[in-house]
Amino acid sequence: MNKTKPSRQARNITVIGLTVNLLLSALKFALGIVGRSQAVVADAVHSLSDMATDLLILIGLRFWSAPADEKHPYGYQRIETVVTLIISLLLASVAMGLGWDAIRRLGGEPRCPPLSIALLGPLVSIIAKEILFRRTRAVGKRIHSSALIANAWHHRSDALSSIPTLIAVGIATFFPEWIILDQIGALIVALLILKVAWDIAAPALAELSERGADDTDVQKIAQLVLRVEGVRSVHKIRSRRLGAGWFIDLHVLVGGDLSVRTGHDIASQVQNRLLEEGPAVADVTVHIEPDES
Question: Is this prediction's pTM over 0.85?
Answer without folding.
Answer: no
